[in-house]
Amino acid sequence: MIYIKNNEIYAELLKITSKDNIKKNEPMKYHTSFHIGGCADWFVILENEEKIKKLVLLCSTKEIPLYILGNGTNILVKDNGIRGIVLKVNLNSVKVKENENENENNVEVTVGAGKKITVLAKELAKNGISGLEFASGIPGTIGGAVYMNAGAYGKEIKDIVISTKYIDNNGSIHIINNEKQKFEYRKSIFNSKIGVILETTLKLEKGKIDQIEKQMEDYSIKRKNSQPIGIANAGSTFKREKDFITAKLIDEAGLKGFSIGNAEVSTVHAGFIVNKGEATAKDVLELIEYIKKQIYIKFKKEIHLEIEVIGE
Ligand SMILES: Cc1cc2nc3c(=O)[nH]c(=O)nc-3n(C[C@H](O)[C@H](O)[C@H](O)COP(=O)(O)OP(=O)(O)OC[C@H]3O[C@@H](n4cnc5c(N)ncnc54)[C@H](O)[C@@H]3O)c2cc1C
Questions:
Q1: How confident is the model over 36-66, as pLDDT tens digits?
Q2: Which of 14, 72, 91, 189 has the greatest number of C-beta atoms within 10 Å?
Q3: Could you write out the three-class secondary structure of the chain?
């Protein structure tokens, strides 16, 4: 519930950051890989912890809803947009701590939550630091990857996280270890909206630059051969289930290429829904419901969303 008027919100936001970092009625389609979504009432980009703390406190004291955005690659924003403030976390620092014992290969890398994984993976590779190759093609941020426990090729972010620093909804800072982050398949403690992830420390190791780059290139080729490229999407729409691969069932149900409005089940990978151009969230949601129903009718199986649906 918003108790303060728009001009008051703007005045408060100006105490935190410059007007260039504050946007009113910002179309979320500009900030999501689906290229779909109505406007956020307020869209704020913040680049340090102090400012993020001020914003969190503003939102909690004034009861303004706060939504945290990474790179927008796992979300579907509804057509009427998001009430309150969307925070784009722009923390991009990378701190490398090598083990002082020369015989040990361990390297601890502490990364700001807004850092894009694709960029980080390339920087680490150039510096001969191995361990993030599996995630090098995931188009989200470190914060989004921790929140989702993102994974690929048999590995998940939980396998390399040592600890994560976050600010809770009352403005207190915490650093929690891997176990306390309660990682599960595409899930972590952060799904309970406990706060804003600020940075994460990863357990990596020294490696050979050419081997790391070769591994990343192999993964990249695999992705290009199996996923829709050059067309807007938000990755896998549905989670894998314990006893079956959801995308396989969608394919077996003959749904590849099936569309509602401009939302289509990818002809390349049945697990992806693509935006053929100007699709609405309504199109995507109707398609999701249609797919769920068909899978239930044909296989008596229930399937669950991997993407997060937000807004109104
Ligand atoms: C082409 C394509 C391929 C993909 N391949 C994979 C894959 O192989 N494996 C995989 O796991 N995923 C994949 N994804 C999905 C997506 O990239 C991941 O889930 C990614 O981790 C989402 O990160 P993001 O920064 O984009 O998060 P967003 O989509 O911006 O947000 C996702 C959730 O994280 C929360 N969040 C983000 N940052 C923070 C923060 N700092 N603090 C608190 N909460 C935060 C948001 O509030 C939201 O709830 C793919 C997506 C696309 C488009």
A1: 999 999 999 999 999 999 999 999 999 999 9
A2: 72
A3: CCCCCHHHHHHHHHHHCCHHHEEEEEEHHHHCCCCCCCEEEEEEEECCHHHHHHHHHHHHHHCCCEEEECCCCCEEECCCCEEEEEEEECCCCEEEEECCCCCCCEEEEEEECCCEHHHHHHHHHHCCEECCHHHCCCCCEHHHHHHHCCEECCEEHHHCEEEEEEEECCCCEEEEECHHHCCECCECHHHHCCEEEEEEEEEEEECCHHHHHHHHHHHHHHHHHHCCCCCEEEEECECCCCCCCHHHHHHHCCCCCCEECCEEECCCCCCEEEECCCCCHHHHHHHHHHHHHHHHHHHCCCCCECCEEECC
Q: Is residue 220 part of a domain?
A: no
Q: What predicted TM-score, i.e. pTM, was given to this entire model?
A: 0.97
Residues 117, 139: one domain? yes
Using the atom order of ligand 1, give the atom closest to the CA of residue 74: 29
For ligand 1, the distance from its centroid to the CA atom of residue 74, given in whole angstroms, is 4
pLDDT of residue 3: 57
Q: Is 219 in the pocket of ligand 1 (CB under 6 A)?
A: no
**In this structure, are 135 and 244 located in the same domain?**
no
Spacing, Cα 46 to ligand 1 middle (Å):
19
Last residue of a domain, one of 89, 122, 141: 89
